[in-house]
Automatic annotation (TrEMBL):
It comes from the Bacteria. Coiled coil: none annotated. One of its GO terms (molecular function) is aspartate kinase activity. Its EC number is 2.7.2.4. CDD domains: AAK_AKiii-YclM-BS (cd04245), ACT_AKiii-YclM-BS_1 (cd04911), ACT_AKiii-YclM-BS_2 (cd04916). Catalyzes the phosphorylation of the beta-carboxyl group of aspartic acid with ATP to yield 4-phospho-L-aspartate, which is involved in the branched biosynthetic pathway leading to the biosynthesis of amino acids threonine, isoleucine and methionine. It comes from Terrilactibacillus laevilacticus. This is Aspartokinase. InterPro entries: AceGlu_kinase-like_sf, ACT-like_dom_sf, ACT_Aspartokinase, ACT_dom, AKIII_YclM_N, Asp/Glu/Uridylate_kinase, Asp_kin_monofn, Asp_kinase. Keywords: Amino-acid biosynthesis, ATP-binding, Diaminopimelate biosynthesis, Kinase, Lysine biosynthesis, Nucleotide-binding, Transferase. It catalyses: L-aspartate + ATP = 4-phospho-L-aspartate + ADP. Residues 389-453 form the ACT domain.
Amino acid sequence: MKVVKFGGSSLASGEQVKKVFKIVTSDPERKIVVVSAPGKRNSSDIKVTDLLISCAEKYLKNEDASDICETIIERYHSIAEELNLSNDIIQKITDDLLSLLNGDKSNRASFIEAVKASGEDNNAKLIAAFFKHQGLDAHYVSPKEAGLLVSNDPGNAQVLPESYERLYELRKKSGIIVFPGFFGYNETGEVVTFSRSGSDITGSILANGVKADIYENFTDVDAVYAVNPNIVNHPKEIRELTYREMRELSYGGFSVFHDEALIPAFRAGIPVNVKNTNNPEAPGTKIVNDRENTNGPVVGIASDEGFCSIYVSKYLMNREIGFGRRLLLILEEFGLSYEHIPSGIDDITVILRQNQIDENIEKHIVKRITEDLHADEVKIERNLVLIMLVGEGMRQNIGTAARASKALAEAKVNIEMINQGSSEVSMMFGVKESVEKKAVQALYEEFFVRVMV
Ligand SMILES: Nc1ncnc2c1ncn2[C@@H]1O[C@H](COP(=O)(O)OP(=O)(O)O)[C@@H](O)[C@H]1O
Ligand SMILES: N[C@@H](CC(=O)OP(=O)(O)O)C(=O)O
């Protein structure tokens, strides 16, 4: 049995949905189909999920949202029209959206969650209706009915372990199951969404639950490329990756597959195959437990913006027991989560997502650290990019860091920070946002174009 997930780009128009139908029916093992909300039809388009969030926010502020509401309905309407579906399904979607928007707003977060998740929910209903219209034995199944229980953490839900046993029951259902991605239900029966792009997570949870043979993730590219195709033109395709490599690359900025979506499939030992809805014959990229190491030290280079660093320096920091703990306690008191902590003898740098720290909080943090820890210097640097070089082969290869540093130096890129060694399969460089492209291109050139043996 296969679980197949189609992303928003694969479902953005009727023409795309017809491709999805062909893919599903071309293999009888494709029994569970997870769908996202309609995504972008072109680069200037807006995803239905983004329209729904704006619409919900306007309702909460009592502002006129009729235009956005119409745009949302029109997205579904144009898909249904291309698929020759009757108006019944659009009437149902309109009624559902209006009833959610006019529903209880006493808990603002829950209200937004329910509206946001309706993008996937209504799309699953529409796609199930189309599959049935084509004569297929297909059914929409709700995450509530299937028992997909999640933590009550809006926009960042985590699956509850008891879900897996319940989801196994889906194996018994006849025909094709069309399942909305991106959300589950908390223990009190309310909708809670995963983090953005979380339909990948639903697919992985279902693959684990039903113990699928494979989890196929259909998107709009032929493969996971060695580098973001928006930074390097026509980059090398990756045929095979390990779970660990993909996890690091997704975390590092490969938005093609959600970084939280690996764990459920990994735990059940289910391979993931990233494939292209627009070219399903292409083999895509397989994510597996072990792979033949034929790619040299680096398999992929990811980069992500929006980081800042808190640099703290104090003479003899290495001798002061509890310094690190007290520093992290201050960050905890400010409600901040951190990503990495490279350190030296007298210095420590904490890397964080900068959207957590506005300029007002920044002043307070610097003051607290300076006064409480008697630090010699405390500095916050913003607008950093983290570049991750990833590859299982790094363990056996000597000189990867030297090659990377040399390539960056030749491209006149100043390295703000290096973190190597904590992970066996990755190496991280911090650079300024303004040199991201130049830095990634130089590293790609070094490890994939100027191939060294
Ligand atoms: N290394 C990479 N390999 C392939 N695609 C990548 C990579 N890094 C970023 N992307 C981007 O990810 C996109 C696919 O992800 P996404 O838009 O979320 O798809 P979907 O709509 O299927 O969920 C690609 O179109 C590409 O622009
Ligand atoms: N529609 C949701 C969930 C999702 O997975 O979408 P996509 O498959 O288009 O990345 C979002 O935009 O976050």
